[in-house]
Amino acid sequence: MHGYIKTGNSQPAWLFPFIVVVVLFLSVLPLARLAMVGIAAFASGGVIDVLSEASLWSATYYTVVTAILGTIISLVIGCLFAFLLTLTDIRAKGLLSFFFVLPMMIPPQVTALAWVQMSGPSSPLLKALHIAPPLGSPQPLYSVGGIALLYGVQHAPLVYLALRAGLMTLPRDGVEAARLSGASSLRVFRDIILPLSLPGIIAGAAISFVSCTGNFGIPAIVGIPASIFTLPTLIFTKFSAFTSRTFGDVAVLSAIIAIISVVGLMIQDRALRGRDYRVIGLSGASAAFELGAWRLVFTPLVWAILFFMLAAPFFALVAGALVPAYGVPLTFKTMSLHAFEEILFRQAVTRTAFINSLSLAGATALCLLVVTVLAAYALTRRKDAASRIVASLIEIPYSLPGIVMAVCFILVFAAPIPILHVSLYGTIWIILIAYFSSFFAVSLKPVVSAFHQLDPALEEAARLSGAGFFRRLADIIVPLIAPAAGASVILVFLIACNELTISALLWSAGTQTLGVAIYNLDDSGSSDLASALSVLVVLMVVVLMLLLELLAKRLPKGVIPWRG
Amino acid sequence: MKTIVSAAALLAASLFAIPASAANLVLYTSQPNEDAQATVDGFMAANPDIKVDWVRDGTPKIMAKLQAEIQAGNPVADILLIADMVTLERLKEDGKLLAYKSPESAGYDAALYDADGYYYSTKLITTGIMYNTSAAMKPASWKDLTKPEAKGLVTMPSPLASGAALIHAQTLAAVPGLGWDFYKSLAENGAIAAGGNGAVLKSVASGEKAYGMVVDYMPIREKAKGAPVEFVFPSEGVSAVTEPVGILASTKNADAAKKFVDYVLSEKGQEGFLKLGYIPARNGMKLPEGFPARDTIKVLPIKAAEALKNTDQDLKTFSGIYGSN
């Protein structure tokens, strides 16, 4: 983008200020409130105490190490699937893709629970095979490697979706031209596909890294038992021992997480610099490669990975829901439906949590999309310092663990809102606003990358022919970014549906989310109920995805992320 | 595209059209979900005109939530039913509780409720040792957990997540011959402290650990369901919390809240706790299945006022021994 479009006349004057106001409300206000508390802690000298705590530095170390390892694992798995399912003629692509995206819908704490149940001394699976480790064996997942592995599994679909969106728009003509000139498959991959897909890979890595640093569910379940604390779990434990110093301590801890995330994002920015590839139109390079004999290697490989990511943990969950008590081997004799009965017919929280999570996730995804499209337009068309600042401000709430954002919003909305005299605290609205703030970046990413790949000439032509802003939006931009917009809505919906860390602090009587309900059930020692509810959540997600699958014919091409 | 957007808007609108359930009583409790639901169901059956919404979390977390709400000037809870009298004593001193002289208190030992009627104990929950039946050693005393046979096999709840665990640590710390040194030697023996009592139950029943400090009803109840666990009341004695009930001064439903207090103290409410496997606090009640006779259980004393004063220091001491958890 060299300044041959004057920003002033290519977008309406209200657009950028509008985005700035939204960002001020969602990012700056809550963080400023937290910063004030942090500065007050500084002034009272509390910061020295926090910074001198060994636990803080070990948590920082573990956060960085697990996030880097987790990102590497998610990149390996995510890229493998993205390339195989987008560019080759591997069989049952639709099914594979559907299954591969599914684990992302499973809340991280459920993933962690399922893996723990799958692999420990009490694993019904291993017990049935008589290969369960002896009593007191350390659970292998309670380690840095365990946390990283689960991060990788949890975030691989994020990498896959980010990369796939880019791969779908690869110029087929480029590949064909290379082919006709006699280039080998490897050569085509190395010289055309890989360079063009790098932005997608880098974006995927950044999303994954940021998600790892802020993840709470996984280190809470597999880290705490081994006394491995990451910054989010350290913050959580600080909160459960509420003292006058808590807010100040948390402000400092949050600042460290923010720094880690921002460093990660700066590396992404550097990596993306000068890689602004724009290609015309949508010409998916489907099946650019024929696998031939390699099929025998890749087909079992991807199915095996899926079995471990999806099938085995799911069966472990079902088994966990069916055992009558802990440690009882699961057989047809001991099987009990008690947990499902309790969850479906007795626990009032089940219905509440389903309604809350679905409405929160739906409202968050749709409302954000409207703002996101406008914001992406404004941010990609303006290349000035102001827009870069706004872009990083949008990133910050997502890079912070949900628990920090939750605290910010408690501080902001603790007192009744002036003039209106309503108190949002303890209502569902405070969760919704915190979701807007936290998932803005998630919603924005795919849309921005789509804008980056738009050829400005198209819109330019419309503008020169006198089409107004909304006309250009409706006729040119929206159809072209529809796939990314769809991906954005679905991503946000899924993430919000399974969210735990924000709602863990903001929920109240009657506003429990599914994440809270599951974590809370497990926390009280009813992991059979937690597993039963998790099974229902997974089934609900599958039903939702199948509904989208049925609608696929009516939606613009590419709206459903797992479809070719 | 337009149709999709409007359909989406309709969908969003319809999701919000579902009215939030209007509750007229909100209970904050640290009982496990099934027990909380059963308690609430029992109360609502006895008082069909009152609807109760409830929230469950570990006592420290519930308190953190409540403190935040009180600071926000918008406490949601009407009633608390949480681990220990020390916590409620603190709330009473802060003027956060409502005094109510329940007629049911006649059936209770005077030591089990606040003379001014700010809170009433509802059960007796002791903390002892549970072990996995495949464990090599059968522990009989707290000291047994520091033996080499138990190296790396002991787990306990963290006082940061469980109110009972805090009282337990404070109780044992005051016992001559145990004290904080006992906790130090446990830590040297590879014991870990993480999460609440539920986590301990899971960890021992599943065989990840062999021994755990835990509240009595959990393993006793699970054993009845067939889990491979046993529970012992150690020879030195057990700590106890009494899960008191109290009404918040800020309640807008004082009458309904008083009915709730009367219900959990009444014979019928206490029967309900008995069925769930708790030792009822009310005089003349039976003990649940699987418990030894009540007079054989040696309950260690705790000085509430001192415990209250030392809470922050004790949490620090504990964290110092067990890392930040």
Automatic annotation (TrEMBL), chain A:
Listed InterPro entries: MetI-like (IPR000515), MetI-like_sf (IPR035906)
Gene3D superfamilies the record matches: MetI-like (1.10.3720.10)
PROSITE patterns tied to this protein: ABC_TM1
Nucleotide-binding among keywords: no
Pfam families for the chain: BPD_transp_1 (PF00528)
Keywords: Cell inner membrane, Cell membrane, Membrane, Transmembrane, Transmembrane helix, Transport
All copies of domain ABC transmembrane type-1, residue ranges: 60-268, 354-548
Entry's Gene Ontology BP terms: transmembrane transport
GO cellular component: plasma membrane
Main location: membrane
Compartments (UniProt record): Cell inner membrane; Cell membrane
Membrane topology: Multi-pass membrane protein
Cited CDD domains: TM_PBP2 (cd06261)
Listed transmembrane segments: 12-41, 61-87, 94-116, 141-163, 192-210, 216-235, 247-267, 305-327, 354-379, 400-420, 426-444, 473-496, 529-548
Keyword NAD applies: no
PANTHER family in the cross-refs: FE(3+)-TRANSPORT SYSTEM PERMEASE PROTEIN FBPB 2, INNER MEMBRANE ABC TRANSPORTER PERMEASE PROTEIN YDCV
Family: Belongs to the binding-protein-dependent transport system permease family.
Official protein name in the record: ABC transporter permease
Organism annotation: Rhizobium leguminosarum
From TrEMBL, chain B:
Alphabetized GO MF terms: metal ion binding; thiamine binding; thiamine pyrophosphate binding
Top-level taxonomic group: Bacteria
Family annotation (SUPFAM superfamilies): Periplasmic binding protein-like II
Pfam family, one: SBP_bac_8
Segments crossing the lipid bilayer: none
Signal peptide: 1-22
Gene Ontology CC: outer membrane-bounded periplasmic space
Residues binding Fe cation, per UniProt: 217
Matches recorded under CDD domains: PBP2_Fbp_like_2
The keyword Cytoplasm belongs to this UniProt entry's keyword annotation: no
Keyword hit for Cell membrane: no
GO BP annotations, alphabetical order: thiamine transport
Residues in coiled coil: none
Key words, A-Z: Iron, Metal-binding, Periplasm, Signal
Name of the protein in its database record: ABC transporter substrate-binding protein
Species in which this protein is naturally found: Rhizobium leguminosarum
Lineage, uppermost ranks: Bacteria, Pseudomonadati, Pseudomonadota, Alphaproteobacteria, Hyphomicrobiales
